[in-house]
Amino acid sequence: MEKSTLIAALKEQFAATFNDELIPGILHNFANPLNGIMGRVKLLSRRHEEVCRSLATRYPELVDDLPLEKITRDIDSIAKEADRFWSLFKDVAQKFTYLSSEAEESLNLSQLIAQEIRFGDFYLNFKHEVKKELLLDENLPEIKSSPAAYSLGFFALLMGIGKRLKDSPQKEISITTSHNDTHIIITVRDNAPPYPPIYGEILTTKGEIGFSPQDYEEGPLMLALLLFRKMGVFGEVLSVDGKNEITLFVPYR
Fold first, then answer.
1. What is the mean pLDDT of each run of 10 residues along the chain (253 residues)?
2. Domain boundary assignment for the chain
3. 104 phi/psi in degrees, rounded to 5
4. Which of 97, 110, 207, 213 is least enclosed, having the fewest CB within 10 Å?
């Protein structure tokens, strides 16, 4: 066996550990020092306030000569950056928690979609080039389903749209969630090139789907629609005012 073949095989085996072993381990090892930093920053802020009050009471003549306000601003800046890093850390941790969960759980799809958007911003083109507008109903009824399936499905949907927006002069995605008595309604609008008719056929076909992505475009957007359809989600794909509009109807009763 050639050296290059052995290296390729070992790289493949290494990559296979990412989702279930490596990333959870990295997140676990990051969590402890990050919690320590955040705790110490809060403690430092409280102690600094106590010192400032004590100096103002006991040595008021020194207060104006000391850079106390600058130190306060620096501590506040460190605290804000620590909170920001904690938020980013939670987004990554939540994503891999979703991916590792195959069992059915109660899911709020508005929260899951918001999480997938935040995780998508780790892809710099999606973060900096695509304008996102979210009108999400936080009080959606919960559904019982696999977090992994919906996380993968919505992430593929977003990345697929982002890919199709690549050559558009304006790159915009808007997502709205609402519900009626039986279904959660998710509407995704974008100004990418028009979608092929097969996308609508996937979401409207009843019974077994008689085609595979290999027959058409084997991209993340088509795979996402096929996955949603397999999960009992119906929908429609329209062109409205020059924009694509994908509407998904997710049963919750």
1. 76 82 86 89 90 86 83 91 91 89 90 95 94 95 93 94 90 96 96 89 77 66 90 92 93 89
2. 3-99, 105-251
3. -70, 140
4. 207
Tokens encoding 137:
């109903």
Amino acid at 101: S
CATH topology of domain 105-251: Heat Shock Protein 90 (3.30.565)
Tokens of 168: 């558009």
DSSP string of 130-182?
Answer: -EEEEE--TTPPPEEE-HHHHHHHHHHHHHHHHHHTTT-SS-EEEEEEEE-SS
Rounded to 5 degrees, what are φ and ψ at 249? -115, 110
Which residues touch 227 (CB under 8 Å, ≥6 apart)?
Answer: 149, 152, 153, 156
CA 10 to each of CA 18, 22, 91, 121: distance values in angstroms, whole numbers, following the listed order: 13, 15, 29, 30
Phi, psi dihedral angles at 179 (to 5 degrees): -155, 160
